[in-house]
Design brief:
The protein has a single domain, classed as Aldolase class I (TIM Barrel). It has ten helices and eight strands. The protein has helices at 16-27, 45-51, 78-83, 94-100, 104-116, 129-133, 137-149, 174-191, 209-216, 233-246; strands spanning 4-9, 34-39, 58-61, 88-91, 120-125, 157-160, 200-203, 223-226. An eight-stranded parallel beta sheet has the order 7-6-5-4-3-2-1-8, with helices on one face. It is globular. The chain starts with a strand and ends with a helix. The model has no long low-confidence stretch (mean pLDDT 95).
Length: 248
């Protein structure tokens, strides 16, 4: 049985006091039916790690380099994330693909480097509105996935984030999201080393407390990668409770 996972991607937000307070409030929850994870900005990982040190909440990096170390100004390698207490790292987020040139092959290299260093990659995939309107959603996502499946060997998590729903207030209907998640599970069963039934697949894209129940009631949605709503502890914890009650 797949355990629910809700991950908060805090992106480039907050001051050190903001993130400490947010982490502290989230850490006060007690949930045994859902795994909870947060991904603060790199510069705040140490502070958040200290705040969460006596909890079972996981810590994730928002990205990592495909290189081990060296003259790569501004980059953060997987070893650094491990040193700071991270267990997971997000790779291939649409914002990285769109604004920073992360190609499918680069995302795959980052995922492979992460797992070599002991991190579980959360691999993000998703289509643009133009690609969806042209009926290419599954084609695009399978292309993104297969690049990773060719190189990855250990456990990983997939996050389906339709690009047109990220930060827009729009969300895929539960049925639309379920259709894509089901296809992702089938693709993993055919093209990866994992049993598709064991793979955790998260939905991301304007998930909020008022739509979480409908999304998490779908059979192939195992939780969420939460953006804006994760910056408010009350909203984030409501989403976590929905996942605990409804996933599987």
């Amino acid at each position: 049985m797949r355990k629910a996972l809700v991950a908060g991607n805090w992106k480039m937000n907050g001051t050190i006091n903001d993130v400490r307070e947010l982490a502290s409030k989230i850490s006060q929850t007690e949930q045994d039916k859902v795994d909870i994870m947060v991904a603060p900005s790199f510069v705040y990982l140490h502070s958040v790690s200290e705040t969460l040190s006596k909890t079972n909440i996981f810590l994730a990096g928002q990205d990592c380099s495909e290189f081990d170390q060296g003259a790569f100004t501004g980059e953060t390698c997987a070893d650094m994330l491990v040193d700071l207490g991270c267990t997971h790292v997000i790779v291939g987020h649409s914002e990285r693909r769109q604004f920073f040139g992360d190609s499918d092959s680069r995302v795959a290299a980052k995922a492979r480097k992460a797992e070599i260093k002991g991190l579980c990659p959360i691999v993000c995939v998703g289509e643009t509105l133009e690609e969806r309107d042209r009926g290419r959603t599954i084609e695009v996502i399978e292309r993104q996935l297969c690049a990773v499946f060719k190189v990855i060997e250990n456990k990983f998590v997939i996050a389906y984030e339709p690009v047109w729903a990220i930060g827009t207030g729009k969300s895929a209907t539960p049925e639309m999201a379920q259709e894509v998640h089901e296809n992702i599970r089938q693709c993993a069963a055919v093209h990866s080393h994992v049993d598709g039934l064991d793979l955790r697949i998260l939905y991301g894209g304007s998930v909020k407390p008022d739509n979480a129940d409908e999304l998490f009631s779908m059979p192939d949605i195992d939780g969420g990668l939460i953006g804006g709503a994760s910056l408010d502890s009350e909203s984030f914890l409501k989403i976590c409770r929905s996942a605990a009650e409804l996933v599987n």
